[in-house]
Design goal:
Layout lengths: L22 H24 L16 H8 L7 E4 L4 H6 L4 H8 L23 E4 L6 H15 L5 E6 L6 H13 L3 E7 L2 E2 L2 E2 L9 H6 L4 E4 L5 H16 L5 E6 L20 H8 L3 H11 L5 H24 L16
Parallel strand pairs: 1-2, 1-3, 3-4, 4-8, 7-8
Antiparallel strand pairs: 5-6
């Protein structure tokens, strides 16, 4: 039984709307999504080897939200995220080698081997940090937006959250404060309908999350989370609003994770969701549907895609080799960043 069906319109609304877009930009969006997908698949393929000493939460199926939103941001804009971090980190420009080193608990990981997959950071590109606590990043991003406002900085904060975060008290507090202070912050909700293995209907009353957020007095929209162009446009408008002093925006993007909540593979066989539901969403895969759209528009073909895949896989394999050859932490490293005697 399919509880949560796809209700978007796909990319058909974009036919004839591409004249105002740079062709290289449109193709880059596809390459960025394909890169995340291939990286995730290689992580999944190797995970059983038990060399990555960290829990993982794959974003396979959710690439369009990361790529579309980050394409509308500047390097100086700050991005915060939750436990499902890989797509956000990579789309914001995070270093792949540093990410894989972190996942292998090597000293040159992006968090010095202290964070693992759920705590990625790269301040050089505005990847400000992530939190494994449900809702943990939301007040931090709100505070960062307040700091930018008080300092007169032309900087926007974005925080990615899941549907379960809207059930946390801190979500309401953050939305209320952002509305009150007209903060330059974007709350980006990836609604994939499940919190671990608990469906949305068992956790919340029937409602549309973006309408709930609008009740706090901030701009709030819902976009197709499988459509990278819709995501980009919504984020671009939200960024413009924030920079112009118009305050916060809440974006809800219904999307679907093709893999388990955590770990490798699909866990639908446990019974919390029907495999037919996942299969139905796979037909609107953000990577494949966008590829077909670009191919129909004459902007890409199979040869170019194969070339992209070869280049990306070379990068991925080199990054894994680098991580595996990198040094482990030593005992003396235990005392680095410790602020008590």
């Amino acid at each position: 039984m399919i509880k949560y069906a796809y209700s978007g319109s796909g990319l058909k609304d974009w036919e004839g709307r591409l004249a105002g877009y740079d062709k290289k930009f449109l193709v880059r969006l596809f390459r960025d999504m394909l890169r995340i997908r291939l990286i995730e698949e290689e992580i999944e393929r190797r995970y059983h080897q038990d060399q990555m000493k960290t829990p993982i939460h794959l974003v396979i199926g959710q690439e369009a939200t990361s790529v579309g939103s980050c394409a509308a941001l500047r390097k100086e804009d700050l991005l915060y995220s939750s436990h499902r971090t890989h797509g956000n980190y990579l789309a914001k420009g995070g270093d792949l080698k540093a990410m894989l080193c972190e996942m292998h608990c090597r000293i040159n990981g992006c968090a010095g081997s202290r964070g693992g997959s759920m705590h990625l950071i790269d301040k050089s590109v505005g990847m400000a940090g992530t939190s494994a606590i449900v809702g943990g990043a939301m007040p931090i991003a709100t505070g960062a937006a307040l700091a930018a406002q008080l300092q007169g900085l032309d900087r926007v904060s974005v925080v990615f959250l899941g549907d379960a975060t809207t059930e946390e008290g801190v979500a309401s507090e953050s939305l209320n404060f952002a509305a009150l202070k007209r903060l330059p912050v974007i709350f980006f909700c990836e609604n994939n309908f499940y919190s671990v293995q608990s469906p949305l209907a068992t956790r919340q009353p029937p409602r549309e999350i973006y309408k709930w957020a609008a009740g706090y007095g901030i701009a709030s929209v819902q976009v197709d989370g499988t459509n990278v162009l819709d995501v980009y446009e919504a984020t671009r408008e939200a960024v413009a609003r924030a920079r112009e002093g118009g305050g916060a925006t809440f974006i809800e993007a219904p999307v679907y994770r093709f893999r388990a909540h955590g770990g490798a593979g699909d866990d639908s066989h446990t019974g919390y969701r029907d495999p037919a539901e996942r299969e139905a969403w796979e037909k609107v895969c953000p990577v494949e549907t966008y590829y077909q759209f670009l191919a129909k528009a004459g902007l890409i073909n199979g040869t170019l895609r194969e070339q992209m895949q070869a280049e990306i896989m070379q990068e991925v394999l080199e990054a894994f080799d680098y991580a595996l050859a990198s040094p482990n932490p030593e005992e003396k490293d235990l005392y680095t960043h410790v602020y008590s005697d």
